[in-house]
Amino acid sequence: MKVVVYGLSTEGYNIAKSLSLKGFDVSMVDESKGMAVSIRAEMAMAYSSVNALMEDEPLLGLEPEGIAIASADYIFFTPKIRKVAHDAKVEIAGKFRSMINHLGKDSSIIYCIPTGIGGNKEVMEVLEHVTNMKVNEDINYYYMPIATDALGYVIGSTSIMREDQGIYRIIECVTDGSKISMMDIQSAEILYSNRVLSHYIPLITAFELCKNISEDTRSILREEEGLRELFIDDVASSLFDLYMLANSIESATLAHIINNCIRSLEAYSKHIVDEVRLLLKKKDLRASKCKIVIAWSIDSNEMRSSRTAMLSLLSSRLRDYVGDVDMLKGTSLLEVYDERTLVILACSRADYERIKDYMDKVKSIGRDSIIVVKANPLCEVID
Predict the structure, then answer these.
(1) Phi, psi of 6 (to 5 degrees)
(2) H or E stretch including 141?
(3) Phi-psi category of 133—alpha, beta or left, where left has phi over 0 and alpha has psi -120 to 50?
(4) Deepest in the core among 179, 204, 206, 238, taking most CB within 10 A?
(5) Helices 252-282 and 306-321 sit at what angle, rounded to 10 degrees?
(6) Are 292 and 336 members of one domain?
(7) Structure confidence at residue 124 (pLDDT)
(8) Structural domains of the chain, count
(9) pTM of this prediction?
């Protein structure tokens, strides 16, 4: 049984690695080069992530993507999408068409990008038009949106093909043995969309409620661990899914809620800049005497580009105000002597913990002019 994972993304590599270690014949397609890489079991054990694989560049078994896809029994669609909003849909459609040009009869597609409500119907229409094959008759189609652990797994199938035992074996490997119930496509779309909204709307609401609160209120709310430990990184990835949902929801009320969530997330970078401006004013610090360092460890190979897009917007707006804005890479920026005040913006729990570990080092070399701002709903300041 041959499996092809289309897209050299982190999510795609995790699927390829899991299947390879279980004895499947697996290849990954690098969509930027049009070549398929054989992921052998020894390679899967040696490289824990796609980043490690790409950095080391081991001797790889390569073949053209067309040959690999045409001979595959199952194809996972997990490309890296670098666009956002409407542009993302155009990019996805282009990569999907490129993949299905090579499909063989009786193969199965597992579509791993969230589509919103009714999105899979459009995908299957494109599939049939481009390949001149019929879903359920000539080709099988499954919907399995990949997201964070908090959202869990959902898998939908066109009703006729539920007895395909191969897909159950594959899904069991990919989900670490989890028993996932197969359901129809529409039910899978609704269930996944409900999980997205139920998980993210309360988090986004917390960011919105804590804007423009007094310092006294802020001090009281710092006792709430749920607000203290919630970072912008926890909600940024939802932008991609919310965009997809916003374009597919027929309910005016629900569309209004989703669009307001999107606007709230997009406006967060401006809120951060306002908070930094207020902080510097309170401390009588001039922007020209400060350097901003953003600590946000983002996986450049994840499927969604939401975090990268938000980071770009955040750094651009900060640069308009302060001028000197950089990313935290290792400890170099903290250990280089500089007379300016260093303002470090911690955008995730992991990055905040990393910064705390560095502070003792920094103090030992006499760098006391450092302020840490947690990118959480309270925009906590730690001197």
Answers:
(1) -90, 110
(2) strand 140-143
(3) beta
(4) 238
(5) 40
(6) yes
(7) 96
(8) 2
(9) 0.91
